[in-house]
Known about the structure:
By secondary structure, this protein is α/β, with parallel strands linked by helices. Helices cover 39% and strands 18% of the residues. It has 13 helices and twelve strands.
Amino acid sequence: MKTGYLMMAMLLSVVAWVEPAHAQITPQLIEAAKKEGEVVFYGAMTVSISKRIGDMFEKKYAIPVKHWRGDATEIVNRVLTEARAGRPIFDVNLGNEAVMQALDERGILGVFDPPAAKNYPKQFRDPDMRMTAWRVLPYGINYNYQMLKAEEAPKSYDELLLPKWKGKFGVANPGIHVTTMQFALSLDKLYGAKWLNLLEGWAKQEPRIGRSVADLIQPMTSGEIPLFIGYIKDKFQYPGPIEYVRMNKYLASVGFIAINKQAPHGNAAKLFTDYFLGAEVQRMVGDTGEYVFHPEVDHKFKKDVRDDQIVTMKLPTNDEMESWGRKFREIFR
């Protein structure tokens, strides 16, 4: 009998270790957050969406939200500049795995296990609880449907090597834009050893090169180029004749939210993060075209993109990012 009790105690202790208790959003934390007066978050989220989230949060908690928008590279550079100066400004950061790795390796992210995310997919869970996955961002081929019919658009990345697409598509420079570097390095998951030849072939096609994916949206919607490689969610988030090619597989990065370990408004950072991950915000964000993880929320890709079509992009090391960055800048110069 004693042995049975001992085994049960050991089992319970293991379960408790594997599934740590989630943080709590207490009345005391909410009151402390209100006294801090504001919350500042960084992220590559459109201003219109961030304003809606900010308005919702302020209405609920009477705490103003300040948002600074930048792409992956700009966010990393800004946060690291603040860290070197010893004057952190942001409280909460939204970013993909490359952004979060760059910040986490420098000890910038704080530990927080939001209760709102307790039923999020376990396979994306950070065991150290320094970031919470909330969406995936599939890359694909976006095209101007006023310039191309669906049957005329390329169905795969290697079709962009055909002579008819020379000078007629855009791609962010993978030597500059972090997520596009991830995408380029992950092409081997679709094309094997031929991935680099594919990339070099694109460069010879004289594509429109952007510093970021966002740089290519206006040229495509205005008709300067008929298509570009980027986030397929752009169809739902930008005005204009945008459609995406239906593919068998989609390389995708994972989007995370994390708090600053030295957040100027630490309680507000936790409160905002938990609120952001809750059903109210995630439903609104899902309606805008984000592929969100909240179990109670649908997303607009349900009919066309299945979970088993998502291929997670690989995460290069800092050394790989540096060496491949030089290589890609040389290829796409």
